[in-house]
Specification:
By secondary structure, the protein is mostly beta strands. Helix content is about 10%, strand content about 25%.
């Protein structure tokens, strides 16, 4: 019952095929009249564009077990197709020193029927929520802790349906913490009432291009502490820019950095049209000038 339906056009926003790590939606921290203007000017991605699982070089497999799974198909509000993308980072000076490279990467997806011969297979549908700061600007020659918060109001808007259906709480169970070569540690603080009540993932000795690029299950205690409506999340990255020749900006190529977290969570209703009204990627931009056209020429800092 599995078949490919079409070839997707990379420039078609209705196929959700834009690179989700390139900023393509309005940052949450834009406010006031500028927000109202940009809401009219920026074309939103199709509301059915759900960011899926992502793996990077060196990432290891994750088995969800028999009790968890992503529900897809006509019964869901939007997850009716799976689009698989491959993104390649070519070596520096690739054009001058071209040599063929064989791609031996793979992505295995196991599909099971939810209903079979009159019986229904019991699994907890899981959701996915990504958090990314597209406005990074790390000064060179320093050890820096970069932190940014996702407000409770924005979490509440993105998860409206799930909070309504599951008693105002969701439960993170696994996470992928993502940075590049200058990132040395990543962790996510769970905040409630202005106080830290725990963490949803930590890598103290983070190394890019290796197993740290994997999704991993949270410690049992964190899997049992729900994220309540009104809580917020704070993402932290410890970065060492002393090897850098220039200030380090956000990007997906060489000599750039990221500070992102991607959560798998329970208490998700994939049938609800109220979740992810804009996207399941919560986009922030700590330096708005970088996200809204960059620094004016001659005024770089």
């Amino acid at each position: 019952g599995v078949r490919t339906t079409r070839r997707y056009n990379l420039d078609d926003s209705f196929t959700c095929s834009h690179d989700s790590f390139i900023q393509n939606s309005l940052p949450l921290n834009v406010e006031g009249r500028l927000k109202k203007f940009l809401e009219m000017a920026i074309k939103e991605l199709h509301p059915a564009c759900f960011f899926g699982l992502v793996y990077d070089r060196g990432g290891e497999s994750l088995s969800l077990g028999q009790d968890l799974g992503f529900l897809i198909g006509p019964s869901t509000s939007g997850s009716r197709e799976i689009v698989v993308q491959s993104h390649y980072l070519a070596p520096k000076h690739y054009r001058e020193r071209y040599t063929p490279v064989w791609d031996n990467s793979a992505f295995k997806i196991t599909l099971r029927r939810v209903k079979r011969e009159g019986r229904e297979e019991k699994r907890d549908p899981i959701g996915l929520l990504a958090i990314n700061d597209y406005g990074l600007k790390y000064p060179k020659g320093r050890v820096i802790q970069h932190s940014y918060a996702v407000p409770s109001s924005d979490l509440g808007e993105a998860l409206t349906g799930d909070f309504a259906d599951f008693g105002n709480e969701i439960q993170p169970v696994a996470v992928h913490l993502h940075g590049h070569f200058l990132t040395k540690s990543i962790w996510v603080d769970h905040m409630r009432g202005g106080k830290k009540v725990g963490e949803y993932g930590r890598k103290d000795e983070y190394r890019a291009d290796g197993p740290d690029q994997s999704f991993f299950f949270l410690p049992q205690g964190d899997q049992e502490r729900p994220l309540l409506r009104g809580d917020h999340l704070r993402v932290n990255c410890l970065v060492d820019t002393r090897p850098a020749e220039n200030d380090v900006l956000y990007g997906v190529s060489h000599d750039t950095e990221m500070c992102a977290a991607i959560f798998i969570y329970k208490n998700h209703n994939p049938l609800s049209p109220l979740n992810y009204p804009k996207s399941n990627i919560l986009s922030l931009c700590t330096d708005l000038r970088l996200c809204l056209g960059g620094y004016p020429k001659g005024q770089e800092e």
